[in-house]
């Protein structure tokens, strides 16, 4: 007997969703609402990344009111607060429990193959399946970016990426070098700093934004201004937008700025971008001042846009003085760090993640092997993506716009299903 028939109820489904996170289950909810028969396959367990790839003190950096799954908005009592990890998971699990998706957990999809006759064959570790249409909802953060020179770190130094970090006590004794200043890098550096750990931070070109400005959360202002609803086509090229780092800020303890200059005043060692490691020495670029100034300039530009909006709309809002840097790097910053002399016990790589869609064999990718899609729809009939960063707007890939993006994709799935025979693939 076919192994897949033993494990799955059937060999063939009209629609298979790959991925059981917020994107995949949003698609499942909307498919169920339309009465479209489908299956959801998840490699680990539902919401795995939220449960196992976020540090213990993790919290949202955008307000709770931006949490919107289909027919399941934020339902707590603090819409302008920032849910912590366990609260996020609980909120998502309530969504799952509300409709009981046809979810198979612990199933790894190893190949998705477009068939000449139409439809798709899915190879899994529990046997093959076929589907008329497939929704890929596995985000694009698959492989941690670890530079080749990481292999030059002394074996006595523990190294890990942001997804493996849990808390300061889980790290070896000694100082910690955090590499990268996107959202994860800055928040992990802050977590270590607040715990009293000796922190070295390699500062990259990521921008920053204030938490609050002129009496409101900056996110509230930008939402009123329509910033989060601007489609990707109206920004830079899609590739440039995807490559931009997120602005660093935090929702911790009710929300506040992350000011790396203030951390420096408090004892954190700031360095420029990490360029190399060799012979026990870390080599940094001489770009610390430039990177800090550029981050502040971005923040000032956002505030300027808010000022213009306030003036244009005639809004009465409190005035706020321009930011003044509280610390400046030395004229001759340290560009070489002896790791042993600095007592570095751990290095945390926070420089992003690369996509890996090599397991999908379909004409749906650009020259860089990234999904080529418009609002999730590809040129390969019946193949869709959901939950990609900037799939349509800033909110794509985030909880904020996943309901809207899922609605669009599921509508396209439903339209295509009408034109298909009831069972196009026989599964023989």
TrEMBL record:
<dbReference type="InterPro" id="IPR024000">
    <property type="entry name" value="CHP04046_FMN-dependent"/>
</dbReference>
<dbReference type="InterPro" id="IPR050982">
    <property type="entry name" value="Auxin_biosynth/cation_transpt"/>
</dbReference>
<dbReference type="GO" id="GO:0004497">
    <property type="term" value="F:monooxygenase activity"/>
</dbReference>
<dbReference type="InterPro" id="IPR036188">
    <property type="entry name" value="FAD/NAD-bd_sf"/>
</dbReference>
<dbReference type="Pfam" id="PF13738">
    <property type="entry name" value="Pyr_redox_3"/>
</dbReference>
<keyword id="KW-0560">Oxidoreductase</keyword>
<keyword id="KW-0503">Monooxygenase</keyword>
<dbReference type="GO" id="GO:0050660">
    <property type="term" value="F:flavin adenine dinucleotide binding"/>
</dbReference>
<protein>
    <submittedName>
        <fullName>Monooxygenase FAD-binding protein</fullName>
    </submittedName>
</protein>
